[in-house]
Amino acid sequence: MHGREFHPKERLIHILTLVPFLFLSGCQATLPKFMPPLEEEGEVYLYTQPFPQEAERLTFTIEGILAISGEGREFPLTLTLAEIKASDTRRQRLLAFGRLPPGAYVAFSLKIRKASLRTEEGETGLLVPNTPSRIDFPVNVSRKRPPCSRSFSR
């Protein structure tokens, strides 16, 4: 970072601003098992992409993720990975999925419950926003099928 040392709270803000852009929305054929076939709804799957190397010292817990429709309605997704730790940041991981009514979705909302940063002195608790972070990312959900793969990465 060009020689500037960031305070742990500044790092959290910097890293949490990057986190929303580290997701992938796409098709998934194997999860979840034993669910009834799609009828009037479609599916969405969110994946993490590998995080930047500097995020390896960060651990955070996700309280919830919502899909936001074009009309502003919110639909909760099922979390499959609520706590993100160093071992989860190196590769793509399924983060959340959900069955949604067909239609246009304009964003996802991500609420972080807690976060910490591993430092030379040990774990340091970090301040997290009180309100969810909105990630503007349009997805069209079709009846009886998941959307085609699209990446949040920018």
H-E order: HEEEEEEEEEEE
The number of distinct helices, counting runs of at least 4 residues, comes to 1
pLDDT < 50 stretches: 13-31, 149-154
Global mean pLDDT: 77
Q: Roughly what percent helix? A: under 10%
| Shape field | elongated
Number of strands: 11
- Relative strand content: over 45%
The biggest sheet amounts to: 6 strands, antiparallel
Instruction: Output the structural class.
Output: mainly beta
Please give the alpha-carbon distance between the first and last residues.
19 Å
Radius of gyration: 16 Å
Ordered list of secondary-structure elements with their pairings:
Layout: H1 8-18, E1 23-26, E2 42-48, E3 58-69, E4 74-76, E5 78-79, E6 83-84, E7 93-100, E8 103-119, E9 122-126, E10 133-141, E11 150-151
Question: What is this structure, in a nutshell?
Answer:
With 154 residues, the protein is mostly beta strands. 7% of the residues lie in helices and 46% in strands.
Summary tags:
1 helix, mainly beta, 5-stranded antiparallel sheet, single chain, 154 residues, 11 strands
Q: What does this molecule look like?
A:
The chain is mainly β. Strand 3 and strand 4 form a beta hairpin. It is elongated. 23% of the residues are buried. The C terminus is likely disordered.
